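Box 4.2: Ligand-aware structure prediction
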Amino acid sequence: MAKSALITGITGQDGSYLSEFLLKKGYRVFGIMRRKSELNYGNVSHLLDKITILDGDMCDVNSLIQAMKISQADEVYNLAAQSFVASSWSQPVFTGQVDAIGVTNILDALRIVKPEARFYQASTSEMFGLVQEIPQRETTPFYPRSPYAVAKLYGHWITVNYRESYDLYACSGILFNHESERRGQEFVTRKITMHVARAYHGDKTPLRLGNMSAKRDWGHAEDYVEAMWLLLQQETPDDYVIATGETRTVREFVEKAYAQAGFNLRWEGEGINEKGINTDTGEIMVCVDEKFFRPAEVELLLGCPEKAEAKLGWKRKVSFDELVSRMVKHDIAQGVAKT
Ligand code: NAP
Ligand code: GDD
């Protein structure tokens, strides 16, 4: 009998790559999707003949119990979340309901319907926030810096608690930033690559960004979904940091992305006055806009993937340069429309 997997957040970036990965392994894939006023299957539109979409919402435990009953999932991947950190200040309660209480809802659904099923929780490097150690590893103390990270910390600990209370096979993957050609357009990497593509196609509007000195450990989502699966194939459940072990500033991402499209930048000014100037034409291509500053910032993330590499045999394949190059090429090929 083929194994069956249930993915919450199947329409998102990771949900789509994980679906493709599990289908290749011969799984029957079920996904939960919340109702929208306009039907839109997001990143899994191309998979609809191979997967089963079930109606559900992380805030509605009954719909999650139904999804467990229908799918009889052997593995449950909880990827659903309000995942945009900036929006968690404008919608802190909703973020808590989905990213924190939603995790208890799906854990209870699993426990009631099929307690032997294996459970993956999408934890995040944002939980390290104001970092207490560099690099961050599984033992590094947490210090969340946003309503999103606080909610995710609850999700992380309720997963540990259900593992210890009910002897569930439940794990958290503490994943550092991972991006792709399917990344949501509000996240900084995709915002940059889409703007670069517009510049390539002749748009001269400068790119407006917030804190360009923030550092992130960026990998490609395709590599990270393999780690999710590996976490659920071990003898005993455990939590793992998944990261590249390299960190770059937003500014470095900007430089690489523009260079990929044939634009070389030099930087002038500081802080709010910093500008990225086209070295050939002298035009301003990048500037700072306070609107994108956050009430509390996570300045530096750098993960240590040693435990995952040693115990899971996981290693990232896509380098930083390849990540940027793939995203820029994709967006240029799309001929991105002006927003
Ligand atoms: P994403 O693209 O924003 O996808 C989030 C998914 O959750 C979407 O399918 C969304 O559905 C769904 N969702 C949101 N609220 C829901 C609700 N109330 N009920 C049911 N579904 C709901 O995020 P991602 O980048 O794929 O990330 C996947 C998970 O990993 C998230 O939990 C994120 O917090 C976590 N994570 C991501 C990263 C990263 O760098 N990407 C790093 C660490 C952890 P709609 O289409 O309806 O909005
Ligand atoms: N989005 C955005 N837009 N971020 C900007 C901008 C801008 O115009 N300018 C600077 N930044 C900075 C942010 O302040 C942050 O320091 C960094 O770029 C990355 O921002 P995002 O791409 O929005 O991602 P994130 O790191 O806040 O969160 C992502 O990664 C987490 C894992 O560490 C999300 O995917 C989370 O869901 C995930 O948990």
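In the box above, the bound molecule is guanosine-5'-diphosphate-alpha-D-mannose. The CA atoms of residues 178 and 220 lie 5 Å apart.
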